[in-house]
């Protein structure tokens, strides 16, 4: 009996440690955990600058990029996204969950609307979030300094001795100083709203 109680205590302890390691769930505006396969609007914490996220064609050509809907007449919610945890067994998005993001919408450039961090511009030293390329793994952290949540990314290193220090960042931060900077919209925090797809055609580019 003592051995059984000890085993059960150890099991409960391991379950508690596992639960803490997963981090708290990321909540939408209804107070429900973000869930795999569900559509959400990503609503910027700073709402007087630009609206939700959508597809943008820089210079009118492909590929498409992640951008923000400008403030103006009509809806500014943008397009919904779907979060897919990297671990097939995960259904809830927590603050330690690694996941990919895709727009729940079609693109005139490519069929795949999964987000990826593009190559660094040698002049501006900025990276835009592009769709249709190699998917990037993101995560979400709570940060009351800039908004309810921030979306971050950090490239995976398959061969640590050869990778060096990874270039990580927060999606949406605009640190660029180039001539394009006046056309960018800063996006640092987010709320996640349940919703269905809507049509938006005009937007501003969005970068990290």
TrEMBL record:
So which residues are the signal peptide here? 1-21
Q: What Pfam families would the database entry show?
A: Kunitz_legume
Could you tell me the superkingdom of the organism this chain comes from?
Eukaryota
- Which keywords are on file for this protein? Signal
Give GO terms: molecular function aspect only.
Answer: endopeptidase inhibitor activity
For this protein, the record's InterPro entries field holds: Prot_inh_Kunz-lg (IPR002160)
PANTHER family per record: INHIBITOR, PUTATIVE-RELATED, KUNITZ TRYPSIN INHIBITOR 2
From the Swiss-Prot or TrEMBL record, give the protein name: Uncharacterized protein
